[in-house]
Design a protein that fits this description.
disordered N terminus, binds nicotinamide-adenine-dinucleotide, seven-stranded parallel sheet, 7 strands, Rossmann fold
Length: 272
């Protein structure tokens, strides 16, 4: 819960969470607000959903506003950052969370489906990270606020390492995010900008509803999760808070998998 205690780890920081209006993004937005950050809840289409997340944060005593922008469109991203500077002067944390799935067997995958997923999941992360990094460098260090000059957290997936038939556009976007994150981390470390990823496993959100439609589908999904439960947006929110906080000041260029062991090749647990 948000409170005014001095132990809040993101106090006096401005955080942008793209796609913060639902699922994991909403969980991250609420967790960061509870740690004292002022959160910008970005949304693409649903102003109502974004307003509901903002209202929840305010009800808990936190600070938040909603800003609309399609992260795959450069002019909209630039306009969002102008609005952030106008309203809050600067930014300290970017959570690059927006992402979509548009599945198709490989032989039937249209260029449109391929391009749409790459545009939102990969180009969207590039555009927002570039604008955030430009703002961090423009503003310079604020050691009284945070040891790092800026923090970027990319929402990746277990599919940055696990291939995924029927989802080549999505898996490719997440593999791309891994190299985007690492290359940015290498390039921006001298400016004291930390860049990391979170690789969620199966988290109960709208994006994967179809994989949990029936009890049988849910049972099948659980066979891939050694820890025996589907994750919750709050599981990811807590990791994001830690990565953004000074507790993680020596952590850059890495992916933290929060997946109940999905990346442990559970098929080999029983002698393979
Ligand atoms: P979700 O569908 O609830 O959230 C996706 C968010 O992205 C929504 O808020 C949506 O409005 C936003 N978005 C979509 N297109 C956008 C655009 N063009 N511009 C701005 N925002 C846009 O699903 P989620 O599960 O919360 O997904 C969040 C992130 O987590 C995604 O990057 C997804 O790939 C990743 N992820 C999810 C899971 C999971 O199991 N749920 C697992 C691994 C990774």
């Amino acid at each position: 819960m948000a409170n005014s205690s001095n132990s809040q780890r993101l106090q006096n920081q401005i955080a942008l969470v793209t796609g913060g209006s639902s699922g994991i993004g909403a969980g991250v937005a609420k967790a960061m607000a509870a740690e004292g950050a002022t959160v910008i809840v970005n949304y693409a289409h649903s102003a109502e959903e974004a307003a509901a997340v903002v209202a929840d944060i305010k009800k808990a005593g936190g600070r938040a506003v909603a800003i609309q922008a399609d992260v795959s469109k450069e002019d909209e991203v630039l306009h969002m950052f102008d609005q952030i500077r106008e309203q809050f002067q600067t930014l300290h944390i970017l959570v690059n969370n927006s992402g979509i799935q548009q599945d198709s067997p490989f032989l039937e995958m249209s260029l449109e489906k391929w391009q749409k997923v790459i545009d939102v999941n990969l180009t969207g992360q590039f555009l927002c990270a570039r604008e955030a990094a430009r703002e961090f460098v423009r503003r310079g260090p604020q050691p009284e606020v945070s040891k790092a000059t800026g923090k970027i957290i990319c929402m990746s997936s277990v599919h940055e390492v696990i291939p995924w038939a029927g989802h080549v556009n999505y898996a490719t976007s997440k593999g791309g995010i891994m190299q985007l994150m690492k290359s940015m981390a290498q390039e921006l470390a001298p400016q004291r900008i930390r860049v990391n990823s979170i690789g969620p496993g199966a988290i109960a959100t709208p994006i994967n509803l179809s994989a949990r439609d029936t009890p049988e589908e849910e049972r099948n999904l659980l066979t891939l999760i050694p820890y025996g439960r589907i994750g919750d947006p709050a599981d990811i929110g807590m990791v994001a808070v830690w990565l953004a906080s000074d507790e993680a000041d020596y952590v850059t260029g890495t992916t933290i998998f929060a997946d109940g062991g999905m990346t442990l090749y559970p098929g080999f647990a029983d002698n393979g």
